[in-house]
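Lay summary. Proteins are chains of building blocks that fold into shapes, and those shapes determine what they do. In this project we predict the shape from the chain. Here is one chain we studied, written as its sequence of building blocks.
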Amino acid sequence: MKEGFRQSMAWLHTWSGLLVCWILLLVFCAGTASYYRNEITLWMQPELHGAAASKVTTDEAVKVAQQAMQERAKGATRWFISLPGERNPATQLGWSKPSQPGEKKRGRRGNFHSEAADPATGEVLSKPRETRGGEFLYRLHFDLHYMPAIWARWIVGFCAMFMFVSIISGIVTHKRIFKDLFTFRPKKGQRSWLDAHNVTAVLALPYHIMITYTGLVTLMFLYMPSGATAAYKGDQDAFFAEAFPGRSGDSKPAGVAAPLTPLAPLVRQAEQQWGGKVERISVNHPGDAHATVTLSRTSGRDMSSKQPSMEFDGVSGKLLSTDGDALPGAAATHGVMVGLHIAHFGGPLLRALFFLSGLAGCAMVATGALLWAVKTRQKQAKALAAGKRASFGLRLVEALNIGAIAGIPIAFGAYFWANRLLSVTMEDRPKEEIACFFGAWALAALIAQLRPSRAMWRMQLAVGAFLLASLPVLNVVTTESHLGVTLFLGRGPVAVAAFDLVVLVLGLGLAYAACKLKPLPVKAAKTTPAAKPATTMEAA
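And here is the predicted shape, written in a compact code that computers can read:
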């Protein structure tokens, strides 16, 4: 080989990043937003904003929730109760009922019903509008959409492995990795984009390595099943039972009616043992002699995603089993890896740091894609000056860059606007909101393919800036709890005001980028007419 090891790593770094960068950008954007998925869902359900003012004890909330479920969920096979907390002001009630004879299966959640209730009274909170809210963005970053989840997870895992290779090869390639952290030379064309890529990559390098590796670990049983399959002769249930012990299997109903034990004393018992709050309550076969109650602790006390749980007899209240207090080493390690990825353990400051690191990851991916286009256009400068067209690969990458880097903010903005503009009574409303997300993104990507020019960059960045920066104004028009009420009157959910503030800052950032992309000088356009529609933003 004529090339040295470092040069070989540079080639690997370039192509392992470029080939999947547009999917990675979507995954990074959706995953970064997922750190605040509860707050996003709250913003998208303004009917629940009043619940943030309700302050009740856990004991009172449990009693009210049990009474509400006994009244509304008669005949249900399972109850699900999510108690209110710092990030969830309302009590979430859910229950599933068995399919009726002759009824066609409508999917896993066909007979599942859910509603938000006031923690103090149990009354339904004015039937909040149907929306997937932040849950859609959370699922989008590993399940994508409009395809089977198993395919999506393989695609995302493939892209994540490419990114991991790109990160490691990038570390090998950089001779002055720490010096590059403090180096940025603006208005230098390719040099500026390389500096921006280096800064955003090195600034949050530990985060990038951690989030990529743990993302792969979360689905390792999907990507690498051979070991467990060979050791347990294809019996996956036996493997999971031994690897993650403690849970008893789902009991079958006895068919004999029996009253459900009060849940509040069970919650108090669990909280005394854990020294922490109970977050979820699930009841199997309520009203049956074989009913069981499972309590799960609120995440946040440690890094592991495997929070302890307790299972009680649903009639006598006797403790049947505990899970998660002393996990085997492998299970504990897996729980910490997943916990690091989803960051439920983080408080407000740590979650904000994760969010900023995620934004740095988005910028790293975007600047890497732009850098390739800048370098390639410079290599073709002589041919372009001679009147030849840009190569198909360069034109395709430039169009995809516009469609992803400028188009994804448009999709996010359209999703939030659709939440407020679509009729509250619309049938399949969550699907329509998601359709607006992908419709806006597809339109931006298609238009970018028609003419991937500097003017197209400015237009799409300006559209994204308007959609995001105007969301606080839309919130003022459509609700009574918004940024102004929180800042000047001290009322309303802080999460809603924080959402308004964040999208405003992001929108202003896009507006600044659009303003910096001024048209190329006429003189330069006459000198190199073929280079006029350049999209690499070299003069920015």
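What the prediction tells us: Confidence is low (pLDDT under 50) at residues 104-110, 522-536.
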